[in-house]
Amino acid sequence: MIIPEIKKFTPVMALIKLAYMPHSAAKYMSHAIKTAMSNATSTLKVSEDMLEFRRIQADQGITLKRFRAGSRGSPLPVVRRMTHITVVLGEKKLATSPAPQKSKVKPEAKKEDKKEVKKVKSAPKKKAVTTEVEAKS
């Protein structure tokens, strides 16, 4: 529910948006983004403003299943669900002049190869033999 809202922003703007969201998951998401930003700035050697989200997702993690005593000592299940948060950041691509397009010239050698296909003569077909038999009466 939080991810589609922050995915379109830069990580710095996403942290600002998450600070004012009323969801309890916003705290954990902002922590994951801060960690990813510090890792990206140290490995890529770029400033935080030059980062963008490549992938951000929250997957289901492990589930702890426990029991708690209920009425008359009967066990009641307690389920604690965990989440795996994945944040992948990358460097922004600057909008510079477009790369020159490669011309689509087909090499002539390939055309010649197609023309030089040798035809193998097949064995001559046998002519159908017809026999006429006269009936004697």
Q: Supply the number of helical segments.
A: 4
Oligomer: single chain
Class by SSE composition: alpha+beta
Report the CATH architecture of the domain at 3-91. Answer: Alpha-Beta Complex
Main β sheet profile: 2 strands, antiparallel
Count of DSSP strands? 2
* CATH homology superfamily name of the domain at 3-91: Ribosomal protein L22/L17
**Mean pLDDT across residues:** 81
**CATH topology assignment of the domain at 3-91:** Ribosomal Protein L22, Chain A
- State the shape: elongated
Low-confidence stretches: 128-133
* Percentage of residues in helical conformation: 25-40%
**Per DSSP, what share of the residues sits in E-state strands of 2 or more residues?**
25-35%
Report the span from N to C terminus.
Answer: 101 Å
Strand order of the largest sheet: 1-2
Instruction: Supply the CATH class of the domain at 3-91.
Output: Alpha Beta
SSE succession: HHHEEH
Brief summary:
The protein contains 4 helices and 2 strands; from the N terminus they run αααββα. It is an alpha+beta fold and 137 residues long.
Describe the overall structure.
- The chain has a two-stranded antiparallel sheet.
- It has a domain of 89 residues: Alpha-Beta Complex (Ribosomal Protein L22, Chain A), CATH 3.90.470.
- The protein starts with a helix and ends in a 22-residue tail after the last helix.
- The chain has four helices and two strands; from the N terminus they run H-H-H-E-E-H.
- The protein is an alpha+beta fold.
